[in-house]
Write a structure and sequence with these properties.
Order of helices and strands: EHEEEHEHEHEH
Number of strands: 7
Number of domains: 1
CATH topology: Rossmann fold
Structural class: alpha/beta
Helix content: 25-40%
Strand content: 15-25%
Bound molecules: guanosine-5'-triphosphate, magnesium ion
CATH superfamily: P-loop containing nucleotide triphosphate hydrolases
Radius of gyration: 16 Å
Oligomer: single chain
């Protein structure tokens, strides 16, 4: 059976990676918080039906029935905090990913550490998408052209406006729908490429 597409959600601490993962699967599968860094152990999330096919890095998958069986997500530790172990683990996870979803923010998008990862992804020709998170609505028009210019080549780019979170700490569904649809599309096309069944 073809393993699900493994999308690793990575980026700087506090960018909102865990919040995004929870919001995508509409369940609090990964702890979010104000301490930096919060995520120290990767959270692997998948549909219960794909458990047997997604054992990676000795991680125990967390069940998320909202995910399709052909898609698994990893909420990765950050790439830039003082915690060296987090950074090493994040690099390992990126090496293993089918797709890197790089989450950065309006405040952090030009940080050198982020660009080391983004350039590495571009050189390795790994599928890459960028999420510009926590963007004040009035800043979109200025930041997007700059980020697009820095990327230099077409990369799927999603803007998540700084939003009020709900009681479970989740973003409104409508702001994550474009990312959700993109992930579904990538997962479906992996199955077609590999002749899979789901
Ligand atoms: N108001 C608001 N708060 C947000 C938003 N996104 C994230 N936060 C808050 O920002 C803090 C950091 O979010 P996390 O999702 O934990 O960030 P992270 O990227 O997973 O951070 P690490 O685990 O340290 O790498 C949390 O307190 C979230 O509740 C947003 O769009 N709006
Ligand atoms: Mg986190």
């Amino acid at each position: 059976m073809t393993p699900p597409l493994l999308a690793v959600i990575g980026g700087p601490t506090g960018a909102g990676k865990s919040t995004l993962v929870n919001s995508l699967v509409r369940a609090p599968v990964s702890a979010t918080g104000i301490l930096r860094p919060t995520t120290r152990t990767p959270t692997l999330v998948c549909h219960p039906r794909s458990w047997a096919r997604v054992h990676r890095h000795g991680l125990t998958p967390v069940s998320a029935p909202a995910l399709p069986a052909n898609l698994a997500l990893i909420d990765a530790p950050d790439i830039n905090s003082i915690d060296q172990a987090n950074r090493d683990l994040s690099n390992e996870l990126f090496d293993d990913a089918d797709l890197w979803v790089f989450v950065t923010t309006a405040a952090r998008y030009a940080d050198a550490e982020a660009w080391r990862h983004l350039r590495a992804a571009q050189q390795r020709r790994v599928d890459l998408a960028v999420v510009l998170d926590r963007v004040p609505p009035q800043a979109v028009e200025e930041i997007l052209p700059h980020l697009t210019e820095l990327l230099g080549e077409p990369v799927p780019l999603f803007v998540v406006p700084d939003s009020q979170l709900d009681r479970q700490g989740m973003l409104p569904e409508r702001v994550v729908t474009p990312i959700w649809e993109y992930l579904h599309k990538c997962a479906a096309s992996k199955m077609v490429d590999e002749g899979g069944d789901t």
